[in-house]
Amino acid sequence: MSGSLVIVGLGPGEARWLTPAAKAAIECASDLVGYGPYLDRIPAREGQTKHGSDNRVEIARAGHALTLAAQGRAVAVVSGGDPGVFAMAAAVFEALEAGDPAWLALPIAIEPGITAMLAAAARTGAPLGGDFCAISLSDNLKPWEVATARLEAVLRADFVICLYNPISRARPWQLGQALGMAARHRPVDTPVIFARAIGRRDESLRVLRMDEAAAAAGSADMATLVMIGASSTRLIAREGGAPYVYTPRSVTKSPCATSQGRT
Amino acid sequence: MSGSLVIVGLGPGEARWLTPAAKAAIECASDLVGYGPYLDRIPAREGQTKHGSDNRVEIARAGHALTLAAQGRAVAVVSGGDPGVFAMAAAVFEALEAGDPAWLALPIAIEPGITAMLAAAARTGAPLGGDFCAISLSDNLKPWEVATARLEAVLRADFVICLYNPISRARPWQLGQALGMAARHRPVDTPVIFARAIGRRDESLRVLRMDEAAAAAGSADMATLVMIGASSTRLIAREGGAPYVYTPRSVTKSPCATSQGRT
Prior knowledge:
homodimer; alpha/beta; Cobalt-precorrin-4 Transmethylase, domain 1
């Protein structure tokens, strides 16, 4: 058994944001495994087989990748963004732990990528200038009460909050509820960023106010990263362009000062 | 005035983790501005001037970069990792807001990079598989009570926690106190990762248990990223290598189940 497995982050989509290490890992693979739309971003290559699969079958996909590697193939599992952030890396290790003990002898590597919140931040200014967190709003894998308890905790503690997987056809109301919760903790003019498909041809970026964000939730989709500012996050207006959004590095007041709502 | 400013993320250090966009932005600059050790990573280039500065003078450095750009230079401000994560981007926007209004006419762009927590996660497995946060332990810019209040909030809510700027000569005890707090919330065998200079020649990686982490705090330095697992973060042992660390994607219990301490 001389196969191998590498879990590769494609970044947000632009070739100019794909690391040389990730590019090389893809080029050296005999087999590419991933969600169909991610595989579609990679040009076909002679002698390289693509194994596309649907969304929401991550464990089956990970098991398939490990099986191919155990058969001696050089397998690359591809993820959008960074593979460790709400993507394929954790699924591969779950499958590894539950699967054939022989898989533990396989060389497994991870190639990081630019995750959506870094791309969205780069496009808007420096919204992640303070302490921040990333929460998946999907309740496929955790109870909704856990998501809201976590959201409440980081709203009170005044983190900048990045929401991944904010909305889908099966989960139409969660984002609106989350933004409604946020509106009870943050000043009404706190910037909320809807960053969709940043780094791809159809990218769009909207900077909303906290008091209008919940009503706009329905315009987000699974390709949208929603970023809720801290209470100190602010805009710098400029002529001829969208305002910059940034979070000052300094914090002078208690993080609990906003927990009573400020409207 | 035809100058420009780009704030560039060099990533963790390896050229193979530097994005093509960041590389191009550096190559196109007439002037490079940054902390000396970051500038040292960039090969000298004819016609390109390096303006190195000390650590902890970020606002002065940002003002200098904006001044050069306003004089018509093509300026690249370089940061390690991602420029938006506890690095130069926020300092540039603070200087912009407080500075010469003419600076608002400058084109300003940000090129994202692989930040330390993504590199550390890639080297160890998938520790960021669940909800996670990033906190700077530096109290230069925020009161220590704010850092501890935030830490307490995300410990109770069971996030994976990444600590940036964990320790320095001027702040020798904060990391030990933070890890002591963590030990009161997490199971004793929760993995704690000390990832130092990942992606550089002198990189080192240690996976400790929660109950031994606080005593090891003194071995960290400013190049170390400390990652505290969630209560579900676990190890997969393997022959002939360090164990993998991963956080399963699923959460089944209340995030408050660990808030009473579990020893």
